[in-house]
Amino acid sequence: SYELTQPPSVSVSPGQTASIPCSGDKLGDKFACWYQQKPGQSPLLVIYQDNTRPSGIPERFSGSNSGNTATLTISGTQALDEADYYCQAWDSSTGGVVFGGGTKLTVL
Amino acid sequence: QVQLVQSGAEVKKPGASVKVSCKASGYTFTTYDIYWVRQATGQGLEWMGWMNPNSGDTRHAQKFQGRLTMARNTSISTAYMEMTSLRSEDTATFYCARARPGAAAGRFGLDVWGQGTTVLVSS
After folding, report:
1. I want to staple A103 with a disulfide (CB 3.0 to 4.6 A). Which of A6, B38, B42, B85 is the partner?
2. B94, B107, B117: best to mutate for the A interface, most A CBs within 10 A
3. What's the rounded mean pLDDT across residues A9-35?
């Protein structure tokens, strides 16, 4: 089955740019999505189709996907962006989706 | 507004079964697949399976094969997930979410999630 790998944690200072990578074999040939999950809450879709924001998601969230790596970028990171972030792609071998292990973003 | 509302928390003994419901509103139930995702405490998201409410077709992740049943009642726009032979390692929060059918889920993602149902498996 297909696997997605994320770093366990990323730290960023307020106002700076945070980049969260997600790697998988030829991930750039697939579409990547990203979710934000805050403690005690359900996941929230923040990026789909590699780089598209759903309605209501701030413009500071952006995405890219090329080669073996998809990247979620948060520009001008705010304290309220502190959360766990998960990447997701389609796994044709299982006929379902696969999630990365998640990255805890700390804003300090 | 579009929402998925799940049934309440459950406490089960090892070996028992649990059935979680997921009621959809604000959209046509049969036009989106319903996904089930498990999250153990402090752990990541794990895809369990999906069901197409229109056809009733389902797909399970291999590790849940034989223990997971997904069903729906289209007359009340409700999906169900039943897991059998529960063990302590199944203690988790279970989420339902909607996605466009088939591989489109990989492109457009799971765009609406339920609030989660916590299942505690303990003797």
Report:
1. A6
2. B107
3. 98
